[in-house]
Every structure is written in C-alpha cells, then in structure tokens.
C-alpha cells in the first residue's frame, strides 16, 4: 500500500514538473518573440511587418500550451486536485483577454475534466451570465461539479460584489440539478483569486 502511495506522490510531482516546464518554455518563447519585434527600438517597415507575425506566433504558442494542458487534465483527472494546475491553465487561457470572458470547467465525479467551455463574452468591464445556460451545459456534459472563471481586463483581480452575487446565483441554480460548484477564479494578468480560498463560495 505504501509503495502505491509513494508512486502516486511521485506521479503528482512529475505532473507538476511537466506543467512548470511547459509554462517556463512558453514564457521563454514569448520573451524571445518580444525581443525580436522590439529590436533596438527603431521602427522600420520590416519591424512593423514583423509585429503581426510575432503576435500570431505568440497566439500559436499559447494555444498549443492550452491543448497540452487540456489533454493532461482530461487524461489525469487527479491533476485538478492541484489548485496550481488549474490556476496555470486559467492564466494561460484568460490573462491577456481584451474583454471579459466567462468560462466553465465541467468535471466528473472524480474531478476529472470533461470539458472547458467559454460560455459568455462581454465588454471591457462586464459580461452578462445566464445561470439557465450554465445549467443546460452542465446537464449536457453530465457534469458532477464545475469550476467557474472569468477575467478582469483592468488588471485588478479582486472580485466585485456583482461577482459574488453571480457566483451564489449560479451555485443555487446548479444545486437544483445536483451539480456542485467547486470554485470561481478571477484572472487578471498573472494574478488569480480563488473564491473558495477566500471563503466566498
């Protein structure tokens, strides 16, 4: 029994190391791409043409990383037992959004990721979220639990009173169909705030 427990712990450590390596590689690539486009600060036709290419390359890197992390989360449901793994994924997905986006992670009874869906997209300062649509999606995926997340393009990760009221409304609506809300994350830049850790859920 101890051998199996030690093996599980070792697997968890390897998962965290792999996730960290992915993030470090992404940050290094983004840094190199930024340096390439900035050059010596002189704006030339060539450098201006390079900006869209660099932005496209950055987007491709992020999307590739998201696919890797999604596949790992779906293949190893236990990875969601690590709050940092969830934070890393959400930070990659939401950190640089120019408008507010509300996503829901749908989980099975073992907290394995079934799907992660962008449910609503709004303006720079707000998003309209409809509990009925979230409940319909949870039933579609046959989810047992969910994690909510949205970004604050302002760069301030503190949850608003409206965020708190919305979370409670979603929690109550989902409870009617026996789906539990595990957490709600607010992402702003490289900062994430967990409602569960704040005692707001």
Question: Key features?
Answer:
globular, alpha+beta, Cytidine Deaminase, domain 2, 5-stranded mixed β-sheet, 2 domains, 6 helices, 201 residues
Overview of this structure, please?
With 201 residues, the protein is an alpha+beta fold. The chain folds into 2 domains: 2-74; 97-198, 3-Layer(aba) Sandwich (Cytidine Deaminase, domain 2). The chain is built from 6 helices and 5 strands, in the order H-H-H-E-E-H-E-H-E-E-H.
**SS-derived structural category:** alpha+beta
CATH superfamily (homologous) name of the largest domain: Cytidine Deaminase, domain 2
In what range is the share of β-strand residues?
15-25%
What is the number of beta strands?
A: 5
- Residue stretches low in confidence (pLDDT < 50, at least 5 long) are none
Continuous helix count: 6
Give me the CATH architecture of the largest domain, please: 3-Layer(aba) Sandwich
Shape: globular
Largest sheet: 5 strands, mixed
The sequence of SSEs as H and E is HHHEEHEHEEH
Please tell me how large the radius of gyration is. 19 Å
Briefly, what CATH class of the largest domain? Answer: Alpha Beta
Number of domains: 2
Fraction of residues in helices? Answer: 40-55%
Strand sequence of the main sheet, in spatial order?
2-1-3-4-5
Mean pLDDT: 76
CATH topology of the largest domain: Cytidine Deaminase, domain 2
């Amino acid at each position: 029994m101890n051998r199996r427990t030690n093996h599980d712990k070792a697997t968890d450590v390897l998962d965290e190391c792999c996730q960290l390596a992915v993030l470090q590689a992404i940050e290094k690539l983004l840094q190199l791409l930024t340096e390439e486009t900035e050059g010596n600060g002189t704006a030339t036709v060539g450098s201006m043409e390079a900006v869209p290419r660099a932005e496209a390359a950055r987007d491709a890197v992020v999307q590739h990383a998201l696919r890797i992390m999604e596949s790992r989360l779906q293949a190893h449901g236990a990875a969601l037992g690590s709050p940092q793994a969830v934070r890393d994924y959400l930070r990659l997905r939401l950190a640089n959004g120019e408008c507010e986006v509300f996503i829901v992670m749908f989980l099975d009874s073992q907290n394995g990721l079934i799907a992660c869906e962008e449910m609503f997209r709004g303006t720079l300062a707000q998003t309209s979220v409809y509990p009925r649509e979230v409940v319909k999606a949870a039933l579609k995926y046959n989810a047992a639990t969910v994690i909510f997340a949205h970004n604050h393009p302002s760069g301030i990760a503190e949850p608003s009173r409206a965020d708190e009221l919305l979370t409670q409304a979603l929690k109550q609506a989902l409870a009617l169909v026996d789906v539990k809300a595990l957490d709600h994350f607010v992402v702003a830049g490289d900062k994430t705030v967990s409602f569960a850790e704040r005692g707001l859920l």
